[in-house]
Amino acid sequence: MTIDRRRFLTRAAAAGSALVLAGCDKLSETPWWRATLDSAEAATKNVQRAILPRQKMAQEYPASAISKQFRANGSTDPGAGNPAYAALAASGFADWKLEVGGLVEQPTAFSLADLHAMPAQTQITRHDCVEGWSCIGEWTGVRLSHVLDQVKLKPEAKYILFRCYDSLEQTLDNSGQYYETIDLEDARHPQTILAYGMNGKTLPVPYGAPLRLRVERQLGYKMAKYLRRIEAVAAFDKIGRGHGGFWEDRGYEWYAGI
Amino acid sequence: MARRELIFRHALVVRVTHWINLLCMTVLLASGLQIFNAHPALYWGSGSDFGQPVLALDAVQQGDDLKGVTRILGASFDTTGWLGTSEEDGEATARGFPAWITVPSYQDLATGRRWHFFFAWLFVVNGAVYVLSGLLRGHFRRDLVPSGGQLRHIGATIRDHLMLRFPKGEEARHYNVLQKLTYLGVIFLVVPILILAGLAMSPGIDSLFPWLPEAFGGRQSARTIHFICAWTIVLFVVVHVVMVLLSGVFNNLRSMITGRYAIEPPARSAEP
User: Fold this and answer.
1) Which of residues 121-180 of A touch B (CB under 8 A)?
2) What is the torsional sign of CA B4, B10, B15, B18?
3) Cα distance between residue A35 and residue A30, in whole Å
4) Per residue in A144-179, is it b (16+ CB within 10 Å) or e — as a string?
């Protein structure tokens, strides 16, 4: 009978699909298969790094293109879980200092006033979230390369590590603390800035006050907010869970140019 | 009287790339919908105008029920159970596309991206092998470009298809004009646009080719077009599979596995 046959075919299709999906779920958690999938990241990174000139700039937009509503993602109020940050925010970050250390000749702590005294740069760029949406905003700050030149990187330094005030996950071992790493190629890029201003105003708390990173040729999660400390490091395999960032420790690509 | 005859239809490279392609497209669709589910809405332009999506698969709480609402260009539809909300572990859950069509089945953007980009590389390499060999062997020119005569008789071919009359004899040795145009359209139009729209979502690629996202009308438009191309391919595959089933599933499958295809003799009085 056609009804029986149709029911049989529907069930067979559903069962087949469930079997394939269960297989894919299982494969997703199988280390060798995961490593196979992850190899695509190296391919993407190597190809993009090969074809992208070091100084190639991300597109900049006119002021008319600035998004009326810029979505704030990830942490938007670190003060709720971190009294130290809440105290700094209460005094308008007058007591906040950015520590810059690690593999540098002259570890230094910079106040907001110190950063404001450095040459400023403003850029209107598109922020692409890994979730798929984009917003356009204007960012003002100081080039990261300028700050790095002040503290003088040691030759062993390969990556720049950003430690933040916010935690996206409450954990006992502090692995929920937000952090990020970028390599020197991105750290030295002319559009890589430490931003203290957004859309002509002081950077608001939901967007990373008092200071956040902008890495314009990668996705939003690379652009750490609520900066506390910057370190020059030789490797990041001993930091956090070893993948170079909060989201990287949770399966996302370290190279987020795609 | 003419007899049933086995001919050699598909070259090895076509057969191998066909099945790799099927695997890639299946994984790319399922992992692509997983990625889409991370933000189940599409926009037009460079940025996302959150108040005015082109398409949104929302979950709306109505009393005790979680309703799935699909919005397309301002019009709303109740799609509970399919789009916006669907069952996950027996419970109505807010998710764009249902678990049975995404890889992984549970919500996991990071893993979805890993699957998607690995199979995107495989898809592109496999497609490049197919296109290059097709050009070198003259496969496209010989087998896919329609002849003038075929184009002139396109009306009759459409009529035959609608009546499910499939070519036999001499005519069955070649693709008909609808097949040729569809295959050419998918291979040289839909898939290239899909790939370019996908690349236009990469901030790295966009810094190198700023004209690429602009050509689509902005990065969010490119994301929308990538989505439309993906479903255009799904539509193609559905029609393709229906045609395979209707025109002799065993013969068609054999030809795409072993290369051999049987030509049925024409019915005696069919042609004047």
Assistant:
1) 126, 128-136
2) negative
3) 9
4) bbebbeebebeeebebbbbbbbbbbeeeeeeebbbb
Residue A163 to residue A233: CA distance in whole angstroms: 12
Q: Which of A20, A33, A136, A258 to mutate to test the interface with B (most CBs of B within 10 A)?
A: A258
Inform me whether the C-beta atom of residue A251 falls under 8 Å from chain B C-beta atoms.
Answer: yes
Q: How far apart are CA A208 and CA A218, in angstroms?
A: 17
Model confidence pLDDT, tens digit, residues A7-22: 887 788 778 877 888 8
Distance CA A129, CA A120 (A): 25
Whole-Å CA distances, B235 to B133, B182, B239, B241, B242: 26, 11, 6, 10, 11
The mean pLDDT value for B174-187 works out to 95
User: Taking CA atoms, what residue in B is nearest to A252?
Assistant: B110
What ipTM does the predicted assembly reach? Answer: 0.94
To the nearest 5 percent, what fractions of chain B are helix, strand and coil?
A: 55, 15, 30
- pLDDT per residue over A38-60, tens digit each? 999 999 999 999 999 999 999 99
